[in-house]
Amino acid sequence: REQTVIGNSLGAKVVIQYGDQWKELFQHMRDLEQLFIVSAVELQPSTKEPSQLEVKVEVAEGEKCERCWVFSPTVGQHPQHSSLCQRCASIVEGLDVVAD
Hints:
This protein is of the alpha+beta class. It has helices spanning 20-28, 32-36, 86-94; strands spanning 12-18, 40-45, 53-59, 63-64, 71-72. The longest helix has 9 residues, at 20-28.
């Protein structure tokens, strides 16, 4: 963010490389994107030092979803909701909208 490559945390993808000591912990963790408030988290097992943990921050891939503001490669894939990510398009389709 300091270098203005990423505007806010949702513009980021976090890549975590971990040694064997961390394997069990990461196997049970879910929804890390929500925990870190980023668009994506990628977990990569490493063959380096067993206790090693390396974290990198990259620019998130894809376009920004109009509804949740997450950057996702799935934005634009839904025919009726081209400005939404796949998750938000599914949610919006499930809503029972009543016109006035």
